[in-house]
What we know:
The protein is an alpha/beta fold and 117 residues long. The protein has a single domain, classed as Rossmann fold (3-Layer(aba) Sandwich), CATH 3.40.50.2300. Helix content is 46%, strand content 24%. The chain contains five helices and seven strands; from the N terminus they run βαβαβββαβαβα. It has helices at 14-26, 37-46, 63-72, 84-92, 104-115; strands spanning 6-10, 30-34, 51-55, 57-58, 61-62, 76-81, 97-99. A five-stranded parallel sheet has the order 2-1-3-6-7, with helices on both faces. It has a two-stranded antiparallel sheet with strand order 4-5. α4 (84-92) links the parallel β6 (76-81) and β7. α2 runs parallel beside α3. The two termini are 19 Å apart.
Amino acid sequence: xxxxxxxxxxxxxxxxxxxxxxxxxxxxxxxxxxxxxxxxxxxxxxxxxxxxxxxxxxxxxxxxxxxxxxxxxxxxxxxxxxxxxxxxxxxxxxxxxxxxxxxxxxxxxxxxxxxxx
Length: 117
């Protein structure tokens, strides 16, 4: 069994956000799920998270900015996007990015690979 982690999900698509949160909770993780960059910043300011899962493009800004803020606080960011070009660009920057659609196993594998020494 893997160790329980605390996730912050920032995704403006209600369906994607709800499915991610539900599946992570089913695996024993604590999840805070919000819909905007502002709400994500508020959550980071008021809590501690192990992992940030953030959409690259949000209605009120870029998820990449929040990923940098989270990383500076010791939170591992994972960026998600449905844009194939964005995925290529992020891989060139060596940032963890998942192309939508992805499975919960893809997300967890990405996190565990990043946590390995």
